Structures are given as structure tokens and as C-alpha cells.
Sequence to fold (455 residues):
Amino acid sequence: MTTMFTGTRRGRVAALVGAALLTTLTTTAVGTSSAAAAPPPPQSDPFYQPPSGYESTAPGTVLRSRSVSIAAFGALPQKIQAWQLLYRTTDQKDNPQATVTTVLLPWGARPSATRPLLSYQVAEDSAAPQCAISYQLRQGAGNDNIVAQAEILLINAAVQQGWAVSVPDYEGPRSAYVAGRQAGHATLDGIRAAKNFAPLGLGPQTNIGLWGYSGGALASGWAAELQPGYAPELNIKGVAEGGLPVSPKNVLLGANRGPFAGIAMSGIAGLSHAYPELAEFMDTYLTTEGKAAFAKARTQCNHANAGEFAFKDLFKYFSIPDPLSRPVPQQVLAEVTMGQHNPTAPVFVYHSVNDELVPSADTDAVVKKYCAGGSRVTYQRDILSEHIALVITGAPDALNWLKDRLGGQPVSNGCSTKTVVSSIATPKALATFGIVIVNNLLALLGKPVGPADMI
Fold:
């Protein structure tokens, strides 16, 4: 017992120290982000507009590309090779759509057909176009979506492995937050686009991984479910999903009137962008105050909505009691609930037992469903974390698991579930965490991102 407590305390101290060091640099970055000229946001940037006739191209077709400069928190330039690809994908209603992914290579790396590819899905969690990660990663973008911007630290950790990385705008041009099929399609087609992009030099049998937490896990999880039918040619070796929001309805009910009510507000707004019938329902039944509130939520990113709508009762914005009991919301929420298909790629799921935003019972249930259907799932339940803490403390195990999969190490058939005191309280996780922290501090200070033999 003493050993377990000591390891757990050491892990928590390491997480706090690392977070403090990174906060010092990122606070400086936030204070200076306005110094660089801001690029035009997606709604004003012609690059995001697809060419005429793109609808007839195959999903994953690269429609346009450009090289870009990446900056952490809009201010700290990252020495990393980066391009943006506009590509054809498919929306929630199975209609053609175009969106953007940012693809990355280690500094100094040459194209390679044997290089693994990781698709990293950030938690955009917003219903406004300027919140897209393709914009938020650029120099001078400001800090409207600083929560998503912070995930550059995990993106850099992936590039540091020598991998190519795709970071898709999986919500698409309409910022359809919570639209699962849309997110899954855009993630898979972003992988196709990366494979089709000659400067990366990826091969037809490139080993592919996916990773995301919270909103990013929603996209990763839907991609894993849809891949056998939508993109069976992709050689996906593993999918890591943390803080998995299986049931948006249950997240909404739990968040309402609490500190995360603003995230639920963004989710409803995002779904109204994907479902015209929901937008019409809201236009019919929202009060005047409710219409003004949702109009504002559609213009703001995650942390602004989280602050403005915290502890609000969102149902009071409607003129009818219990709006979720009506047929249109019921149908929409049923369609965006996970567990409709079984992943064939191996899956690593990590979730806090005490998650205050995303119910762990829903994740328990979908894992059981996957396993009953023959999926290969490694499920790790964490006791000492909560939703936000596990982003940090769960990342080392997710990264190590992906390294094994992309390195060619297979997983056993079947499923395994374990409950741990703290994911970070193992020597391997702590060592990985320390390496990630050091490499990110160096990257934030201007050191090239990538393995030493490539820079």
C-alpha cells in the first residue's frame, strides 16, 4: 500500500510540475499572441472554399494545398514541416463536403513510404468556424480556442516519434460539433488526403493510428466505428480514445445547470448546423432570450461559451417543457449516440471513473457492446483523475500504446479491462511524461520538433 501511494503521489506531483512549467511559457505566449498579424479566419479565407465540381471527386481527394507556419498558442513558432490540405469528405447527411486538415512532418524529415501516420483529433468543442484547429494552429491566430490550442503539446509528442500527423477540421465548414458521422468521415478522409499528398510520401500500406480525448475521442471513436464500411482500405493499427462521450444526450443532461453547461450549449448549436430539422425545431420553440443566447453561442469558441453559460438551465431557453422528449431531438440524439458499429481496429479506451462531464457508465456499456461483437478493446479505468486531469495523466499510456501498435506489435484477440489508481503512477508512464514535457519545453523555446536523427 505504501508503494502504491508513493507512486501515485509521485505521478501527481510530476503532472503538476510539468503543467506549471508549461503554463509559464504558454502564459507568455498568450500575452504576446497579438504581436503577429492575424491570418484571415476560415469564413474569410478563399482557401477553404472548394472548387466548382468537387462533389464528383472521391472522398479523400486533395482539392488544394499550401504550406503554413505553425505556432503554439498563436505566438510561439514551431520548427515543424506543415501543410494544409483542402479535401473532399462526406457530411452527417452523407452529402459531399470539403474540409481542411493540417499535416505535419518532423523538421528535416524526408518523404518516406514506411513512416507511420497518426490522425490526431483535438477537442474543438465549438460551433464557430474560427475555432477550427487549422486556424488555431497558425501564427497570429489569437487564443479564441486556447483549449484546443493546448493540444499542440500532444501533437508535438506524436511528431517527436518520427510520425507524420494529420490534424483534421472534422467538424467541417459548418462547425457541426457533436455530429458523429460527419466527424468520423472527415477524420478518415483526412487520412486518405494525407496518404494522397505527395510531399509526405506515405505508402499504400502505411501503418495508421488515431488519437483523441473528449471531443477528439468522439471523432476518433466514430472513425473507428465507421472505418470498416467507409474506408476499409486504411491500414489502421490502433485507435486511442480518452474521456469518450458515448451519449451526447447524457452529457447534455449532466452538464445542464452545472459548470460545463456552456459546452452543452455549443453541442446543441453544433448539431443544429448538421441537422436542418433541429435548426427549424429550435427556431420554432426557442424563446426570444433563447434565440439570442444560441446566436451568440454560434459565434464563440469553447472557453467563451463555458464562461458565459456556466450554471445556466438550457431548457429554460425553450418555450416548451422537456424539449428532449419531442421527436426531432430524440431522433437526432439517437443518431449521434455511439455503439452503432463495431470497430475492427484495436482500440485503447481510457476513462476516469469519476468523470464529472462524460459518464463512465456509458463508456463501460459501449466497451461491453464492442467486446460482445468481437472487437479488440483494452480498457483502462482511472480512479484518481477527473475529466480534465486525465487529459494529462492518461496521455503517456495512450502514446505508449500507439507506439506499440504503429511499431508493428500486435494486440491479443479479445478484450481486457482494468481499474488503476492513477494512469501516470507507473515507471513507464512517468518516464514518457518526463520526455514529453522536456521535448515540449524545448519546442516552445524554438528547438526543431522531431527525432534527433532527423534534425
Confidence is low (pLDDT under 50) at residues 1-20. The domain at 248-335 is CATH 1.10.260.130 (434 Repressor (Amino-terminal Domain)). The CA atoms of residues 81 and 105 lie 5 Å apart. The chain has two domains: 18-246+338-454, 248-335.
